[in-house]
UniProtKB/TrEMBL annotation:
<dbReference type="InterPro" id="IPR048737">
    <property type="entry name" value="CetZ_C"/>
</dbReference>
<keyword id="KW-0963">Cytoplasm</keyword>
<feature type="binding site">
    <location>
        <begin position="110"/>
        <end position="112"/>
    </location>
    <ligand>
        <name>GTP</name>
    </ligand>
</feature>
<comment type="function">
    <text>Involved in cell shape control.</text>
</comment>
<dbReference type="InterPro" id="IPR036525">
    <property type="entry name" value="Tubulin/FtsZ_GTPase_sf"/>
</dbReference>
<dbReference type="InterPro" id="IPR037103">
    <property type="entry name" value="Tubulin/FtsZ-like_C"/>
</dbReference>
<dbReference type="InterPro" id="IPR003008">
    <property type="entry name" value="Tubulin_FtsZ_GTPase"/>
</dbReference>
<dbReference type="InterPro" id="IPR045061">
    <property type="entry name" value="FtsZ/CetZ"/>
</dbReference>
<dbReference type="Pfam" id="PF00091">
    <property type="entry name" value="Tubulin"/>
</dbReference>
<comment type="similarity">
    <text>Belongs to the CetZ family.</text>
</comment>
<feature type="binding site">
    <location>
        <position position="169"/>
    </location>
    <ligand>
        <name>GTP</name>
    </ligand>
</feature>
<dbReference type="InterPro" id="IPR032907">
    <property type="entry name" value="CetZ"/>
</dbReference>
<dbReference type="GO" id="GO:0005737">
    <property type="term" value="C:cytoplasm"/>
</dbReference>
<feature type="binding site">
    <location>
        <position position="187"/>
    </location>
    <ligand>
        <name>GTP</name>
    </ligand>
</feature>
<dbReference type="GO" id="GO:0005525">
    <property type="term" value="F:GTP binding"/>
</dbReference>
<keyword id="KW-0133">Cell shape</keyword>
<feature type="domain" description="Tubulin/FtsZ GTPase">
    <location>
        <begin position="2"/>
        <end position="206"/>
    </location>
</feature>
Length: 393
């Protein structure tokens, strides 16, 4: 699937930068065009893989290149004001060569949280290609203002895109991990999952063609209908050693017949499908009730088979209750892993979102109380008790 990606804000820019690095490393070429947008000049300068001409600084008239300070209302305002500058960079994108737009943003900050929904609305008004969002939720320990930003941005973002894919930092941060190190690892997890998903169907010249190829139309159909999506992932390393743990799976056993190899391959694929669906999703949720699903099995061709994928697809149908479950393979000859990626679209049983909204409401009430108390305290400090002083004007 060929994508025009726009990274909005600090987190969005860093994830987009990592997507480009992934493209270069794997040769997947899913990023057809890349644009980074930010109100903080320093964040744009820190990017490594995005061409300088595709880095757009917005809000200079109001924030002078210093960012919006986690004020996502201001982030939305400057995105509206400077949308023509962003469009100027998007105009260079060969839209006829892309299957969709992907707007990437962290939802807890100011620029991306406020600006990503504004840009998505603008893109949908102009282009016929689907516009998807990839939103990253902040972890709970980042503070109330970031949770409030995320809840408000989520509510807006999901309405302005054709589908909002979500990654929840709270489910992925490790205890005691540094902020910088934690986010670097999280960004790698994001790119790995979505890289395999969007890479499906993009076969290099002379490359392997799967038995049941997943192409961009199946991804688009799975994401159609709007709503919220989550992605599951599970992988096992391919063992080259004979009589090793995966020897039967890889067909390396001396004297093992083809029937036994096929059965073991099928069972291993089914196991990976279950691990991907029931393990740690990008947005934790109950998978029953998901409206649509897509299964992609990736790895060396000889470790994939149609029967295993079909069995995994039917299991997903049973677990989700959906009749719209697609599946196929994405052969990667040089891969050292067999991986299962599952896209669950239209999920609604998501306790984390309800929890986020409740914490945001409490944070909003606390902020209002603090502001009122602050005004009262300032009044007591400034005004003299007898009201004998007169201000200058």
């Amino acid at each position: 699937m060929k994508l025009a990606m726009i990274g909005f804000g600090q987190a969005g820019g860093k994830i987009l930068d990592r997507f480009l690095e992934y493209d270069q490393r794997t040769g997947s070429e899913i990023v057809r065009a890349a644009v980074a947008v930010n109100s903080a000049k320093a964040d744009l300068m820190g990017l490594k893989n995005i061409p300088e001409e595709n880095r757009v600084l917005i809000g200079q008239a109001r924030v002078k290149g210093h960012g919006v300070g986690a004020d996502n209302e201001l982030g939305a305002e400057i995105a509206e004001e400077d949308i023509d500058e962003v469009q100027g960079a998007i105009d260079s994108i060969p839209v006829h060569e892309v299957d969709a737009f992907l707007v990437i943003a962290g939802l807890g900050g100011g620029t991306g949280s406020g600006g990503a929904p504004v840009l998505s609305k603008h893109l949908k008004r102009i282009y016929t290609e689907p516009v998807y969002g990839l939103g990253v939720l902040p972890s709970q320990d980042e503070g109330g203002i970031y949770t409030l930003n995320a809840a408000r941005s989520f509510q807006t973002f999901v309405r302005e895109v054709d589908n909002l894919m979500v990654f929840d930092n709270d489910a992925w941060r490790k205890t005691g991990e540094s902020m910088e190190g934690g986010y670097s690892e999280i960004n790698e997890e994001i790119v790995k999952r979505f890289g395999i998903l969007f890479g499906a169907g993009e076969i290099e010249p002379g490359g392997e063609v799967g038995e049941s190829v997943v192409d961009s139309s199946e991804i688009i159909n799975t994401l159609s209908g709007g709503g919220v999506s989550t992605v599951g992932y599970a992988a096992e390393e391919v063992s080259r050693e004979k009589k090793g743990l995966l020897s039967r799976f890889t067909g390396d056993d001396d004297g093992a017949d083809d029937g036994m190899d096929a059965a073991n391959t099928t069972n291993r694929i089914t196991s990976l499908v279950r691990k991907a669906a029931l393990g740690r999703l990008t947005l934790p949720c109950e998978i029953d009730g998901a409206e649509r699903a897509l299964l992609v099995m990736s790895g060396p061709p000889k470790y994939l088979n149609r029967k295993g994928i079909e069995r995994g697809r039917k299991w997903l149908e049973e677990q989700t209750g959906s009749m719209e479950v697609r599946g196929g393979d994405y052969p990667v000859s040089e891969s050292g892993f067999v991986a299962s990626v599952i896209l669950l679209s239209g999920v609604t049983n998501v306790p984390r979102i309800k929890e986020l909204q409740q914490v945001a409401i409490e944070a909003q009430d606390n902020i209002d109380d603090i502001r009122q108390q602050s005004e009262e305290n300032l009044h007591r400090l400034v005004e003299d008790d007898e009201d004998e002083l007169e201000p200058l004007f």
